[in-house]
Amino acid sequence: MKLLILGGLIMSLVSAATALAAVKSADNSADVAAIKTVMESMANMADRNEYDALEKIFADEVEVDYTSLGGGEVEVKSNTALMSAWASLLPGFERTRHTLNNLQVKVDGDKASGSSKVTADHWVDGMFWSVTGTYDYVFRKEDGQWLITKLTLNFVSETGTRDVFAAAMKHAAGNPNTYLTRQKTRQAVIDFLTALEEKDMEKFNSLWAEDAVQDMPFTPDQSIRRTSGKDNIIAVYKDWPQTAGKVEYLSTLVMFPMQNPEVIYVEFDGDVDILTTGRNYKQKYSCLFHVVDGKICLYRAYYNPVPFKYAFKMDEQ
User: Residue 265 and residue 257: Cα distance in Å, rounded?
Assistant: First the structure.
């Protein structure tokens, strides 16, 4: 009788373990499929020059190792820096084709590793270059999405000429990809707010195009409602270091890219101690920037005039 009970207990434990393993296998299978999609998407989106979408399958910081192909060192880059590097080269080719096969994935909780064979073909100016090798990947799951945290190319062989790189870089530089333009636009906004926070007026002054316009439709100060020309805008801000104490803008910055990569809409909160009045200026900003070749052509800021009046004691006038 005891043997029967013991045998039943063992069978129950085995059944439970089998069921658990089946569930785990099913979960892993869904994750494996998702990860293989990421691997395939990396190749396909690179061939289509879709760098905004491609950026989103990489972690904020990614380790990249192409040393087997061209020497150098293993690099750790932000996903935007990596995409900027790719967007500075790949669009210069007439065509690229990255073919993956033998995709392998191992999942361990919220981490995973993978590998694939790769053949990458490149065409430009009548020249051809093809490289074969393997990719090794490391992944991390964040908010339900699998992101690449490490990418290694293991070089095997090549045919054709590496002269394709110089030709492609020349073509890419002559016709910059929209991703690079959008990154310039974003960086101009960051530099603008950083210069104000740090009261770096030399940097601030360098950001404006000669024919720039600053437009503040709701400001109660009529003298700065619309300011045209770089020199006039610089004059508006010339006393900023003496006017502002503690300044905070960037911590709440949210950017919304537009179809035109030279235009961006942003929102952020301002928190500034106004030294000339001894008051604190808290504000919510909705702003439109138009940036050409890294220079601000238009800065249009919408904000509540009431906090402005209070901070600068216009409410007592």
Answer: 6
Quick one: 201 and 66 in the same domain? Answer: no
Q: Is the pLDDT of residue 316 over 90?
A: no
Alpha-carbon gap, residue 273 to 240, rounded angstroms: 11
Closest among 148, 181, 180, 177 to 56, alpha carbons compared: 148
Q: Does some domain include residue 1?
A: no
Q: Decide: residue 277, CB within 10 A, 0-12 exposed, 13-18 middle, 19+ buried.
A: middle
Residue 147 sits in the same domain as residue 208: no
Do 147 and 218 share a domain, yes or no?
A: no
CA distance to 17, 18, 173, 208, per residue, from 12 (Å)? 9, 10, 67, 74
| Residue type at position 15 | S
The answer to whether residue 185 is domain-embedded is yes
pTM: 0.82
Angle at alpha carbon of residue 45, lines to 44 and 48, rounded to 5°: 95
- pLDDT band of residue 114 (cuts 50, 70, 90) is very high
Which residue range(s) make up the domain with 53?
A: 28-176
What percent of the chain shows pLDDT beyond 70? 91
Question: Strand runs (DSSP E) across 21-144, as ranges?
Answer: 58-65, 75-78, 95-108, 111-124, 127-142
Instruction: Evaluate whether 147 touches 139 at the Cβ level (below 8 Å).
Output: yes
Rounded to 5 degrees, what are φ and ψ at 81? -65, -40
